[in-house]
Amino acid sequence: MTLTLSVVGCGYLGATHAACMSSLGFTVIGIDTDPNKVAMLQNGELPFYEPGLDTLLAQEMKTGRLSFTTDFSAVKDADIHFVCVGTPQSKDGLAADLTYVRSAVAEIAPYLKDGSLVVGKSTVPVGTAQSLREQLAKTAPQADLAWNPEFLREGFAVEDTLTPNRLVVGVANDRAEQILKEVYKPIIDLGTPWIRADLPTAELVKVAANSFLATKISFINAMAEVCEAAGGDVTVLAQAIGYDPRIGNKFLQAGIGFGGGCLPKDIRAFMARAEELGAKQALEFLREIDAINLRARQRVIDVVRSELSEDLTQYKIAVLGATFKPDSDDVRDSPALDIAVQLQAAGAAVVVHDPKGIEPARKRFPKLKYAEVVTDAVKDADLILHLTEWKEYRAIDPSALSSLVKRKIIIDGRNMLNRELWRKAGWKFHALGRTD
Ligand code: UGA
Question: Residue 384 contacts by C-beta under 8 Å, 6 or more apart in sequence?
């Protein structure tokens, strides 16, 4: 018998999961409360930018296996229900807002058929799965609940879903594990490591992984600060320590730090949860990781001021990059946009360019000025900030911009541009963590 799956919540995670599960041959029903999003998806159009997912979605819609709706009762035909809704930072503190997860489970409960399995994929504070399982035991005792954290990166969402580096399932019994093994069989058959855990461990794996990644980034940004103070070069330092396989060379790119819908809110929610559990001290270091990360943004602004003036009111600054990382249109907690907004608040005339993120950025910050092409953004600029490492920006010929700007000063906030090339073209080139 082929299984039918439902995917509740069709954002970056859910839409990807739905299309990928359909591509494995399952019938998949995607549910979201946003009628515009559902209409687009049902039309085979992606409401956000994610490389490769647009093609996969269009292809899967044609098979007839994949459909989207706002109607929760549609889950009645499904055997397994993946909960992929958001868990943003709450408005009044560091903790995660679990409203969407709780209401998703409550909404589907009346329609769950005998023996069905609800599988949480959202990133939640440890203990949430157990409490949802207890809630289901009361409202839908015919169903069970498991947790299956997701490790996909935006920009690589399809690849990370279909060929992940591990599958982690938090289950309370063998039956739940067997069901998940059946779903993921094609991925397991590729040799993907399978880790069975209890519910709390599965929830913790996800936040531990994101905390480790955040720590790695803030570590190298702390080294960048020391390099600046001592006259060193953090890019050489990162390369040199990265050859030690115990350290590894990934996630050691110094710059303006991490943003997005995951790392910042996950480390904060983890701290808040640890405090509730009486383990506050164990995660105190994450407060420092967060502080180093936010300081990187400030350090860029300090360089801008030292290059131009304390008073920025007479200056035009071009910002290259609005998204929190390249190959995404996601501007949630974007360090690039935060810097742009802060400079504008300080009186500078700021113009932002981004290959994919202008519309989402404009929605969030309508008062910022945006340019569709780089040459418009940099026209008459006193300084250029390179803040998101789109490959388009690495392809820029610095001499071609020379005649457009007022002053040839560039700050590379991502340590990705070719410094020699810019200097040869007569530009004053700064990069975080490099004093030379
Ligand atoms: C992150 C994790 O990498 C995924 O494994 C996880 O599944 C996801 O969160 C999630 O929780 O859903 P993502 O937010 O897509 O994925 O982005 P990352 O690739 O982790 O980058 C996060 C931020 O760190 C970006 O702003 C990026 O520019 C920055 N970064 C990354 C650095 O500043 N330096 C680096 O060396 C690497």
Answer: 317, 318, 320, 378, 401, 405, 409, 410, 411
What's the pLDDT score for residue 1?
A: 62
Averaged over 386-404, what is the pLDDT? 97
- Examine the domain organization and report whether 257 and 390 are in the same domain: no
Q: Do the Cβ atoms of 144 and 173 come closer than 8 Å?
A: yes
- Identify whether residues 178 and 213 lie together within a single domain: no
Residues 241 and 350 in one domain: no
* Domain final residue, candidates 260, 290, 320: 290
Model pTM? Answer: 0.96
Q: Which residues have CB under 6 Å of ligand 1?
A: 123, 150-154, 210, 213, 217, 251-253, 255, 257-260, 262-263, 324-325
CA of 165 to the centre of ligand 1 (A): 16
Residue 176 sits in the same domain as residue 229: no
**Helices 99-108 and 128-139, interaxial angle, to 10°?**
30
Chosen domain end from 167, 197, 227: 197
To the nearest whole percent, how much of the chain has pLDDT over 70? Answer: 100
The mean pLDDT value for 151-160 works out to: 96
160: containing domain: 4-197
